[in-house]
Amino acid sequence: MKKAILPLSLLLLFVISSCKQDNKEEPTTKELTQEVEENKELVNDKLGHKKELTIQLEPKNGSNVKGSVKFIQDKFNYVKMIANLEGLTPGTHAFHIHESADCSSDDGKSAGGHWNPTAQPHGEWGNKNGYHKGDIGNFVADQEGKGLVTMNTNEWCIGCGDETKDILNKAIIVHEGFDDLTSQPSGAAGKRVSCAGIIQ
To answer: Are residues 87 and 105 in the same domain?
Structure first.
């Protein structure tokens, strides 16, 4: 009887030891969470789920205008933009997408002109006579210098590679004045008081 117990005990000890070694090789909860986060964007892209991108505006031309701009692309390929701004002078200001994500110059002119991949005249968004894909338009800053700009369109995309729709590597520009929606090529909106590159 004792001879039978000894091999059984050794077998049990081997199984327990193997289980411990297997447990050591299993990833921790922290490692699994990190892996999920790192691959979430890729998985969402494949499943057609939403993409999100948030950028930070920085002051230009000696202004104090700053804020954040969030882009959300849903599974139906509509892009929603939500911009929260502060440090503005009260009143109406122009808000555009420009052709380059370069915000390096103090005057913001390194961002180039309006983003206009379809070679249309400048105008109000949706104008039958034409408008730039970057012609977002005007918004009003309140007495505290704060403003909100929203947009929802299927004429943009985030990283789709379509040159007529892709907003990546472009820039958001906030202007000192308002866009008159008719002057060519940019609406005579005045100085660029804030800039942010649309980059991941």
So the answer is: yes
